[in-house]
Amino acid sequence: MASRWLLLLLLGVAGGGGGVLQVHAQVDSLGFISIDCGLPGEAGYMDNITKLWYTPDAGYTDAGTNRNISPEYQAGKSWRNVRSFPAGARNCYTLRSLVFGLKYLIRAMFMHGNYDGLKTWPIFDVHIGVNYWQTVNITDGDMPVIAEIITVISGESVQVCLVNTGSGTPFISSLEVRPLKNKLYPQSDASQALVLVARANIGSDKSIRYPDDPHDRIWIELPTGYGWAPISTTKKVQNDVNDVFEAPSAVTQTGVTSINSSRPIFFTQDAQPNGNAKDLVPGYVFMMYMAELQLLPSNALRQFYVKLNGKLWNAKTLGLKYLKTTVMYNEKPDYASHQYIFSLEATTNSTLPPIVNALEIFSAVPTAGISTAAQE
Ligand SMILES: *[C@@H]1O[C@H](CO)[C@@H](O)[C@H](O)[C@H]1NC(C)=O
Ligand SMILES: *[C@@H]1O[C@H](CO)[C@@H](O)[C@H](O)[C@H]1NC(C)=O
Ligand SMILES: *[C@@H]1O[C@H](CO)[C@@H](O)[C@H](O)[C@H]1NC(C)=O
Ligand SMILES: *[C@@H]1O[C@H](CO)[C@@H](O)[C@H](O)[C@H]1NC(C)=O
């Protein structure tokens, strides 16, 4: 279920248009790098949704060829082109002008669009530097796949490489780099990176990214689920002073409660073996974002337990603050299980059902020094 969320997104990324020639500078004033892979020519363009400037990829790789995706897949979509790598086992993009020791969100997107007219979908690996990042499994022509990693960079450049594993031609649609403050996502450090599994904007039918999220994370809409009732506010939801995730108010303003307060809210995530070491299951990191969106009368109480596989995940019952986000997360990856079942259960004293506003799931991958691979 979770991995499907990543696919259900209408993305405002690729697409032609523009016409202003940009001087070749890899990093914009926000420190962002935004590349439309396979975009011909030298002119970039401003993306209609994010208002961010996307540049062609010629300055980042000298391998591969530009291909246009098939017209039937372009219709109504902002995807137009890809760069395809029919030759070579490993083809890389080099991202420069990064800051040594800084934490970055790096995101690659893959929207096949039947660019080769063959209607067969490849499976290939993405590496960051010398490290396996994830396996990209294209399951349909119009299903974009997102690969995202949060990692500390130990160099001033980093390579993103597409590795042909004998199951079709690797290709890429876009590549984006967003700097993060080092205090964010403390589970990502010099020796461990976080690979995105799911990031859900719960109780909303809109996906959120930049500028609503200054870090340009993509929070994919998860409007409802079995037994859930949406809840929302138009008021701003604040983060705690010690918050280390900075979920934007646009995301935490919506959430769900359970329709029946005596029924928990459930989430299930199956552990998937790491594609690099087929039988090894990676550790998982979860962030659950909860905020009270209703001003409760004094005789009302919303109080609940968060349980993981039937055991209390936090030590105590959870009481939320009005318009203030509480984040529950594990500091160390959890390797304990092949299936993670979260349940949010009202206490017997509670007069109101549990609430949840957003969720992130990552797998943890070791990083033996993600840095420049120097050679080009
Ligand atoms: C972006 O907006 C411009 C102007 O409104 C429009 O002409 C263009 O088609 C849009 N591009 C995409 C990819 O939607
Ligand atoms: C790719 O996805 C298909 C469809 O979900 C699945 O059957 C297949 O096992 C996947 N392959 C790999 C290598 O993950
Ligand atoms: C709420 O759930 C409880 C326990 O499953 C059930 O006994 C009760 O009938 C439900 N109430 C409603 C209104 O559905
Ligand atoms: C429920 O309320 C009773 C009476 O105020 C109290 O003793 C008990 O500790 C409460 N239970 C929880 C789980 O807070």
UniProtKB/TrEMBL annotation:
Record-annotated Malectin-like domain positions: 35-363
Superkingdom as given in the UniProt entry: Eukaryota
Membrane topology of this protein: Single-pass membrane protein
Assigned keywords, A-Z: Signal
Record lineage: Eukaryota, Viridiplantae, Streptophyta, Embryophyta, Tracheophyta
Main location: membrane
Species of provenance: Aegilops tauschii subsp. strangulata
Any Pfam family matching the protein: Malectin_like
Protein name: Malectin-like domain-containing protein
Gene Ontology CC entries for this record: membrane
Cellular compartments annotated: Membrane
Signal peptide stretch: 1-18
